[in-house]
Structures are given as C-alpha cells and as structure tokens.
C-alpha cells in the first residue's frame, strides 16, 4: 500500500482495498494530468530527432483526435499528418504565399521564421469537415447557428488533445495559423476534400531548446467561484 493509500485508509477505515485503490489511483491520474498540462508548452526550437518512431507519433495523433469530444459526437475533426519532406514542402508553400504579401524589406525575417518551422520533424494540419456541420444544421435546425461555433470548439479540443499526447511522448510542438493563405495549396497538393476547412497547423519534433518562463494573470481577474 503506497503512502497516499495509507492516508486514505486512515481517513476512511470502512473502505475496501478496492475502493482505496480506485480512489488513490484516480487522484494520481488527476495529478498526472495537471503535471502534463504544465509540461505542455509552445516550443519553437524543434529538431528532427523524434524520441519515438514515426509510426508511434502517427498513431498517437490519430488516437488523441479519435478520443477528443465533439458536439453531438459529430467527430467533425480531420487531420493531415506530414513528415519528412512532405512537412518541409508545406512550409515551402507557405513561404511562397507569404512572399506575395510581405514587403521585400521585411521578408528576410519572415523567411527565417519559416526556416524554424521547417526544421521540425513534422506537422499535423487540423481541419473541420463542413459537410458534417451543414448536416447537423439541417438535422437540428433549432441549433443551426451554434454548430459552426461548436465545430470551432471541437478543433480546439482536438488540437489540445494532440498537443498533450505529444508532450507525454517527450515531443515538443507549436501551433500556427497561416490559413486561409495556404488553403488552396494544401488542398491541391495533398488532395484534400473541398469540405475540409483548415483551422491550424501544429509543428512537432525533438526539443532543441525549452520554452521560457510562463507568466500567469491574477486568479481574481480570471475566475469566479460561487458555492
């Protein structure tokens, strides 16, 4: 019996061993989640030396999205997972689109930023299937205005789930948004269905340099507790 279980047994002597095990296990899982949430940071200095096999990364991303909740269990989230040269190609496409709109005198800094993203091992592009959204709007007309909003909730949850899952594997990541600038190129290059709407792209790779300190606003400006 571990120390936490001993404390639980002292507080609740009538509890069965199974109850003690389940309760303390649940507490440990909760603590583990918060620790993982704290560990997840935006890492810009990424490399290509993944700590696990590419197939493990792919399955981790798939399972994180698969298990992410969505309104009405709509499962509207979609993903394009890019590794190696495919990942680099995405950022080259992005660079060329940015070249069209960034003034020449400022483009060097922009291009260097793209170099940093391309240095990662891979990326996952997050989409929302608009056919699913439209279908729900037609099926549940009373909630029609809400489904686009709930779709945005779904992609946010899916993105966070993937970020946490990658963090658990020791993989760093950062989230970028060059959509809709790159949407047409992505659709054409990887044969993405027209009904998939790009919502963000996450770079991932080995952690070359950690994130800096993270500041938090005061709790009294952020939370209201009523009981």
Radius of gyration: 21 Å
Note the gap between the termini. Answer: 35 Å
Q: What is the CATH domain class? A: Alpha Beta
If you average the pLDDT, what whole number results?
91
Number of domains: 1
Largest sheet: 5 strands, antiparallel
What is the CATH architecture term?
A: 3-Layer(aba) Sandwich
Query: CATH homologous superfamily - what is it?
Result: NADH Oxidase
β content, as a range? Answer: 5-15%
Helicity range: 40-55%
The CATH topology annotation reads as NADH Oxidase
User: What is the helix tally?
Assistant: 8
Give a verbal description of the structure.
Residues 38-205 form the Nitroreductase domain. This protein is α+β, with helices and mostly antiparallel strands and 227 residues long. Helices cover 51% and strands 15% of the residues. It is built from eight helices and five strands; from the N terminus they run ααβαβααβααβαβ. α4 (85-99) runs antiparallel to α5 (104-118). The chain starts with a helix and ends in a 20-residue tail after the last strand. The model is unreliable at 3-13 and 15-20 (pLDDT under 50).
Key words describing this protein structure:
single chain, 227 residues, alpha+beta, NADH Oxidase, five-stranded antiparallel β-sheet, 5 strands
Please describe the topology of this protein.
Elements lengths: L2 H9 L5 H23 L6 E2 L6 H14 L9 E7 L1 H15 L4 H15 L3 E8 H10 L7 H22 L3 E5 L6 H7 L6 E12 L20
Antiparallel strand pairs: 1-5, 2-3, 3-5, 4-5
Helix pairs in contact: 1-2, 3-7, 4-5
InterPro entries: Frm2/Hbn1 (IPR033877), Nitroreductase (IPR029479), Nitroreductase-like (IPR000415)
GO cellular component, one term: cytoplasm
Protein name: Nitroreductase domain-containing protein
């Amino acid at each position: 019996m571990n120390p936490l279980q001993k404390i639980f047994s002292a507080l609740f002597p009538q509890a069965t061993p199974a109850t003690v095990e389940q309760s303390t296990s649940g507490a440990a899982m909760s603590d583990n989640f918060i620790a993982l949430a704290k560990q997840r940071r935006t890492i810009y200095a990424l490399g290509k030396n993944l700590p696990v096999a590419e197939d493990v990364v792919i399955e981790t991303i798939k399972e994180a999205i698969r298990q992410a909740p969505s309104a009405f269990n709509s499962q509207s989230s979609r993903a394009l997972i890019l590794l190696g040269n495919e990942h680099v190609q995405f950022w080259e496409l992005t660079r060329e689109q940015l070249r069209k709109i960034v003034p020449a005198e400022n483009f060097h800094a922009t291009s260097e930023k793209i170099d940093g993203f391309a240095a990662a091992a891979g990326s996952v592009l997050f989409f929302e299937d608009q056919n699913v959204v439209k279908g729900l709007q037609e099926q549940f007309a009373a909630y029609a205005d809400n489904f686009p909003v709930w779709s945005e909730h779904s992609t946010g949850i899916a993105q966070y789930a993937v970020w946490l899952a990658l963090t658990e594997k020791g993989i760093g990541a950062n989230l970028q948004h060059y959509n809709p600038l790159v949407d047409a190129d992505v659709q054409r290059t990887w044969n993405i269905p027209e009904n998939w709407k790009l919502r963000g792209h996450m770079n991932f790779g080995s952690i070359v340099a950690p994130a800096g300190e993270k500041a938090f606003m005061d709790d009294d400006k952020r939370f209201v507790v009523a009981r």
